[in-house]
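Researcher: Good morning. I'm working through a list of sequences from a screen, and I'd like to move beyond sequence-only analysis. For each chain I'm collecting a predicted structure so we can compare shapes side by side. This is the next one on the list. No need for commentary yet; just the structure.
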Amino acid sequence: MLKRKTLTLRRDLGLFEATMCGMGIIFGAGIYVLMGAATGIAGNAVWLSFLIASVIAVFTGLSYAELSSIFPKDAGEYIYAEKAFGRKLAFIVGYFIILAGVVSAAAVALGFAGYFDALFGIEYLIPVAVALLAIFSFVNFYGIKHAAKASIIFTCIETSGLLLIIALGFKYIGSVNYFEMPHGLTGVFSASALVFFAFLGFDSIIKLSEETKNPTKIIPKALLLAISITTTVYILVAISAVSILGWDKIAASSAPLADVAAAALGSNAFILLAAIALFSTANTVLIILIATSRMIYGMSEDKDRSLPEVFSRVHKKRRTPWIAIIAVLILASAFSMIGDITLVAELTNFAVFSAFMVVNASLIALRYKSPNLKRKFKVPLNWGKFPVLPLLGIITCIFMLANLEPIVLAGGIGLIGLGLFIHYGLRELNYIKA
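Model: Good morning. Structure tokens for this chain:
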């Protein structure tokens, strides 16, 4: 029998820190990186794409809130699926979340590199992205308290940039038709599937459960606060941006929000927003690295582990899962070699939509399978035991999957096959239990 380790993660986070971490990753995950691509698809109606994506996030976010109040563990999605459907499906869900984490870290690191190039004229996007991943992996290793402090500072900086865009847009309100859709409603829905990437992060809050004080109360509150605040800001930023610059110019920009600020205030504003975008994308990378390494840690430290035990090892001095951190760094660096931000982001969305469907289904199943579980938060709008909103979450995730490009769907199916190969390979080698 394996000897159980005694080292655990340190609980240093409260409601403010958890909420700020969630806001930090959400704000940087797409609005600074994918605004141009989304506007090119949806036109001036890009704000509507953000609204649609936020509704989907709320459906699933409520499911996360209830489930996290029952199971306050870092490997949240894996635990939810295991309790509802068993370990095989749980592994696939955990694999999807890990995949989404390393791929999105790569995508946002490439976004950071794009703004870095705009500021300093350094065209080597992939080396810059890998360097950022390495630096923040060290911050992740050094300790959750220090990483959270850095994230709070970065979140304040990135939020100020978005609030500036909103303020600049006030005098331009009404200058364009906000329902102008160059590709019709199909374009708006396609853009919503893309910008859903901008909401990724609310699910990362649950990965902080084992480093949060009183997680069954704090994590659900932090999750819902982060979604509510960021949704409001996103919609206002989208309206302001197209009001100032127009969708066609935004679509052609590699640093869209910086160009929006420059159009309103001059070239110095471009420098300011590009610098803020650096902090924003860097912050997102940091929190993704934290969340994904905790997912790997959680899946490997469980008594019926689905990943090799080595990933559950905690550094004696820093009290962080150091081997899991190294694994995430290597995988994210590998995906950054793709170099195409949009393709990488949509691959992330494939994994996330698939995992979110299972999370919503897990909540529905557990309402019947384990009705007596203590729930400190409960999803509203129920028909008897049946929760209606998680069903809507499943339907909307299927709809979003249908709006992804065929090449993305093909790539996603290939990644599922790779995950199954990894699972059965680990089982045959006796690194995990059957």
